[in-house]
Task: inverse folding
């Protein structure tokens, strides 16, 4: 659990909740290893586009919506965190 | 007379509880959007949530064709997108996906697994008469009832004074049949008017003896 309380994890949880207007979701509801899309948190394809835009605005990360690796980066909060740690340009 | 429509039931909502709300039997829950799953509810503003609640109250088993009319739609978010484009910024994919006039009906359809006909319309102020025309068509085709909602979201300040608007977010829904409920009677209006949801509610409440749209509408005895 401890690794989920670092600043970047919390920042990403805030980003997800605010960007996707998840008004009924609290920080603790986002399991860092659970799927963000479909099962788990239950986000949909529109959310994926919205999240991609937010990552671009906040961290300068540009993703190819069609690429298979994008699917992997969006598979969980921890996967997203790994992406931001390696690709952020801010 | 071209119409023989009947009003079986109705529901209304006004964003301000201090304003003359409908009688309790015609209100929806103050907890807006309580009929929607949270993941769908988040995509709608209050007028959209109220519209879905009214549709659910009047068509609880998803049996009837649905009509959603709004003169202006969600102008707040449409204007936000236009302003973002003017600044050269990318627009929100979510906002863009919800910027069509039938977005509220789409959300309702997913939420309630509604598979009957549904349509969204805007008619430059003639929405009430347009609703009745569409309802008549469905009823004559053999549907037992039609549920229609007329709603307006708040108008951004930039548009105020440039168009007719009720001045507050509001929505009213009616369930129409060919033979059950109070008969709707049409005559020629003294002057054609553009009834908003507020005026429709006042009339249904009994506060006004008739409603002027393209026709003058009156309700027969209960």
Result:
């Amino acid at each position: 659990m401890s690794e989920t309380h670092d600043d970047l994890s919390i920042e990403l949880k805030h980003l997800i909740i605010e960007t996707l207007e998840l008004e009924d979701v609290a920080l603790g509801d986002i399991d860092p290893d659970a799927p963000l899309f479909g099962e788990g948190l239950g986000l949909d394809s529109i959310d994926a586009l919205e999240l991609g835009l937010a990552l671009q605005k906040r961290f300068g990360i540009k993703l190819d919506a069609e690429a298979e690796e994008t699917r992997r980066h969006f598979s969980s909060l921890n996967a997203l965190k790994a992406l931001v740690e390696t690709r952020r340009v801010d | 007379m071209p119409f023989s429509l009947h009003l079986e039931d109705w529901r209304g909502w006004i964003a301000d509880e201090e304003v003359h709300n409908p009688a309790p039997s015609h209100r929806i829950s103050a907890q807006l959007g309580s009929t929607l799953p949270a993941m769908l509810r988040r995509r709608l503003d209050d007028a959209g949530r109220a519209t879905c609640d009214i549709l659910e109250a009047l068509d609880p088993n998803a049996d009837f064709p649905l009509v959603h009319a709004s003169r202006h739609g969600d102008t707040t978010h449409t204007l936000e997108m236009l302003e973002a484009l003017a600044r050269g910024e990318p627009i929100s994919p979510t906002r863009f996906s919800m910027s069509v006039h039938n977005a509220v009906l789409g959300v309702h359809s997913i939420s309630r697994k509604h598979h009957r006909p549904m349509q969204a319309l805007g008619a430059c102020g003639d929405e009430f008469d347009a609703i009745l025309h569409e309802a008549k068509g469905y009823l004559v085709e053999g549907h037992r009832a039609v549920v229609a909602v007329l709603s307006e979201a708040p108008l951004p300040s930039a548009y105020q004074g440039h168009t007719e608007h009720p001045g507050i977010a509001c929505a009213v829904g009616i369930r129409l049949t060919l033979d059950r409920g109070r008969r709707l009677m049409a005559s020629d209006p003294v002057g054609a008017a553009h009834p908003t949801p507020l005026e429709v509610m006042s009339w249904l409440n009994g506060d006004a003896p008739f409603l002027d749209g393209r026709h003058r509408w009156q309700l027969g005895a209960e």
Q: What stands out?
A: Helices of chain A lie at 7-19, 45-59, 68-73, 77-87.
